[in-house]
Design goal:
heterodimer; A: 381 residues; alpha/beta; Aspartate Aminotransferase, domain 2; Aspartate Aminotransferase, domain 1; 2 domains; seven-stranded mixed sheet; four-stranded antiparallel sheet; 11 helices; 15% strand; B: 74 residues; alpha+beta; Alpha-Beta Plaits; 28% strand
């Protein structure tokens, strides 16, 4: 099978990740840091080592600010519901995934003001001005995706971070499509909350996400056992335990640790350049075929992550995806849980076919994929 | 030189504190809190050899919450 649905989750995991998960299940099936026995403490050391490596990857200052979640959506919910209160104002972009849009919609019904800034592709300064124009005296937070999961467009996160910093506004970034693919420096980018889908660009197992927080979280969405201050019925306020109630996903975290090592061994810059080269190759192939609409702009360095959205004119995206599946190719069709982005590019009614690469893809696969697209075009003539 | 037990409450604070202290040349190890420290829950602490006052200042300035300190009987 050719797997091009890496924007959903990286479909092939490194052997080192698989071995780490296997090892954790065999030898670390204990609750880390709760029991006094040696194995529990060793497990806690492994979990802490993972926090330390997350810190190094994103340049955050403190390991205790690294929270393990079950996915990026949970990280985003923790931020939005733990930071925003009635009468607070929040600004987000016109390219957001439902992971941001849906919790904001719910918060909007309970008194939080929500505004959507227009994203102008190819003009990051204009995009930043879109956000700036919406700032009000009660603006508490700006949250935006680092890169669109539909078109791959990269947002001007560094400039938005500066805008937030200058206006005393908290800044949250949905890095689902970028962690492990683009460099992220929380300090230099003025990011207060970084939400990560570890199972995508960091090659960890599904069921793993990260929230790295430099700002405060004022409330929790889940309470329970943390292994700390057990005599109290109030939720402890110390991070990361405050946001990690219940038993954490030790095998997933072991896999994440191996995944970060894998990404570091390849180098984020190398990963990005190689995948961008694949995106450029596919982009040119699709554009040369005729009868195909490509929605992703030309894959320029630091403008696009390796995600290409397109349609074969006259054929529904879901039908194309099904035919590709029959030929052994995995892609994602439809709205990709991002109706805002589809509305912006004019595909809300039809969706798109989305292709996204990982380190395990190559040019030969794209050649085979292009042949499949030609076959579908001819079959439907 | 005395040994001290610095109770941090959480294992994350304990591990982070240990690394900070070791980076400054202290002998520091993480140990689970004994039952007698009932307010620490299932928490952890750091066994330290060296200047405890200086160590505590270092930990506090690094954002580590300290629940208490005791001299460890050898």
């Amino acid at each position: 099978m050719i797997y091009f649905d890496n924007a959903a989750t990286t479909g092939k995991k490194p052997e080192s990740v698989i071995k780490a998960v296997d090892h954790a299940l065999r030898y670390f099936s204990v609750n880390p840091g709760r029991g006094g026995y040696e194995l529990s403490q060793n497990c806690a050391e492994m979990v802490y080592e993972c926090r330390r490596k997350v810190c190094g990857l994103f340049n955050c200052e403190r390991e205790d600010k690294v929270v393990f979640t079950k996915n990026c959506t949970e990280s985003i919910n923790i931020v939005l519901k733990g930071v925003l209160q009635n009468n607070d104002h929040v600004i987000t972009s016109s390219m957001e995934h439902n992971a941001v849009a849906r919790p904001l919609y719910k918060l909007g019904k309970s008194g939080v003001e929500v505004d959507y800034a227009e994203v102008i592709f190819g003009d990051p300064e204009a995009t930043v001005r879109s956000f700036e124009r919406l700032i009000k005296s009660n603006t508490k937070l700006i949250i935006c995706t680092h890169a669109s999961n539909v078109t791959g467009e990269i947002m001007p996160v560094e400039a938005l971070g500066k805008l937030c910093h200058n206006n005393n506004i908290l800044f949250a970034v949905d890095a689902a499509q970028t962690a492990g693919i683009l460099p992220i420096d929380m300090v230099n980018m003025n990011i207060d909350y970084l939400c990560v889908a570890s199972h995508k660009g960091l090659y960890a197992p599904m069921g793993t996400g990260i929230l790295v927080t430099r700002g405060n979280i004022f409330d929790t969405i889940i309470e329970g056992g943390t292994g700390t201050d057990s005599i109290s019925t109030s939720q402890p306020l110390d991070l990361p335990e405050m946001l990690e109630s219940g038993t954490i996903n030790v095998p997933g975290i072991a896999g994440l640790l191996a995944g970060i090592d894998f990404v570091n061994s390849k180098g984020i810059e190398n990963i990005y350049r190689n995948e961008l080269r694949l995106a450029e190759y596919l982009y040119k192939k699709l554009r040369s075929m005729g009868g195909i609409t490509v929605y992703t702009p030309y894959p320029q360095y630091m403008a696009i992550v390796p995600t290409i959205s397109f349609n074969i004119n006259g054929i529904p995206s879901a039908e194309v995806a099904q035919m590709l599946s029959d030929m052994g190719v995995a892609v994602r069709a439809g709205l990709h849980c991002a109706p805002l982005a589809h509305k912006r590019i004019g595909t809300l009614d039809v969706g798109t076919v989305r292709v996204c690469f990982s380190v395990f893809n190559n040019v030969n696969e794209i050649d085979m994929f292009a042949n499949c697209i030609l076959k579908i075009k001819h079959a439907k003539k | 030189m005395n040994n001290y037990f610095i109770i941090t409450g959480t294992v994350t604070y304990a591990l982070r504190g240990r690394d900070i202290l070791r980076s400054k040349g202290y002998s520091a190890n993480v140990k689970r809190v004994q039952h007698k420290y009932k307010n620490a829950g299932c928490g952890y602490g750091i066994v330290l050899t060296g200047d405890v006052e200086q160590a505590i200042q270092l930990l506090k300035s690094s954002g580590i919450k300290i629940l208490g300190t005791e001299v460890v009987e050898n």
